[in-house]
Specification:
Elements: E1 3-7, E2 18-27, E3 33-36, E4 42-48, E5 54-62, H1 84-87, H2 102-109, H3 116-129, E6 131-132, H4 143-149, E7 151-152, H5 154-167, E8 172-178, E9 194-201, E10 204-208, E11 220-225, E12 234-236
Parallel strand pairs: 6-7
Antiparallel strand pairs: 1-4, 1-12, 2-5, 3-4, 8-9, 8-11, 9-10
């Protein structure tokens, strides 16, 4: 039966990432409409017809040839001094159950000097305490669930680090996008979407990656929200079956549209 769907695969229009040669189409051909959600994420809306459908997206993204910014002196802000639009990211959400993990967050990191270094310590702990494994968590797994089992995928690493930050009144938001292997050894795993987080310190958002625990270059943001529930790659209003999903995010030093 016809099934309304929303796809979130287009890059966010960041100042430091330039997107060109963009193409999104569906087979069979159906109208595609643009939509922006409450977070400003760019979505594509369409109605999948009965039978097999294929949706493809491709683009070139020019990214800066350097890793994300770091400032070891970036301070935490007192909650009453936070901008109104940032305060939301101190609260628990569906997957980031900071209220459930509050006691552990304070016992592990409460005595750590506040600021950039404390967030780095949270990411290091999550990176070292969780094992990465595809298929080890479910769409219902919260940060508390993953903390208990000790295994998950990149979104689970991110949910847990966000939960610890929010429990300490540090605003943190979920980010997902493309992360090609630029100037790092390939890890051998199939290419996929990636998840990381942004944390408000001082007067801006800073990028942290609890899954990789290193600064990286080439991040192409697709969406931001409280957690993965706000930025699903695909939302369907019906019961279609996903037969396959393939992601290619790789470097091409001499791009030519094809």
């Amino acid at each position: 039966m016809p099934t309304p769907a929303v796809f979130m695969v287009r890059p966010d229009r960041q100042n430091h990432v330039r997107v060109s040669g963009e193409n999104l189409f569906a087979e069979p051909e159906v109208p595609v409409r643009d939509h922006f959600d409450v977070y400003g994420n760019w979505l594509a809306r369409l109605v999948l017809p009965p039978g097999l459908s294929t949706v493809r997206y491709s683009a070139w993204a020019d990214v800066p040839d350097h890793v994300e910014d770091v400032d070891e002196n970036a301070p935490e802000r007192w909650p009453d001094d936070l901008p109104g639009e940032v305060l939301l990211y101190t609260l628990p959400s569906r997957y980031c159950v900071s209220d459930v993990l509050g006691d552990e967050a304070w016992s592990r990191f409460g005595a750590h000097p506040p600021g950039y270094g404390r967030v780095r310590a949270i990411c290091r702990h999550v990176h070292e305490s969780l094992e990465f494994g595809y298929g080890t968590s479910t769409p219902l797994s919260t940060a508390a669930d993953v903390n208990a089992t000790g295994i998950g995928v990149c979104r689970d690493f991110t949910h847990l680090a966000i939960s610890f930050c929010r429990a300490l009144n540090i605003p943190a938001r979920y980010v997902f996008g493309y992360l090609p292997d630029l100037d790092v050894p390939p890890d051998g795993a199939p290419m996929d979407f990636a998840a990381w987080m942004e944390v408000w310190l001082g007067d801006r958002w800073w990028t942290f990656d609890p899954r990789n625990s290193v600064q990286r270059k080439g991040r192409v943001v697709i969406g931001r929200g409280r957690d993965a529930a706000d930025v699903p790659m695909v939302t369907t209003f019906g019961g279609p079956v996903l037969e396959s999903m393939v992601v290619h995010a790789e470097e091409d030093k001499a791009p030519a549209w094809r």
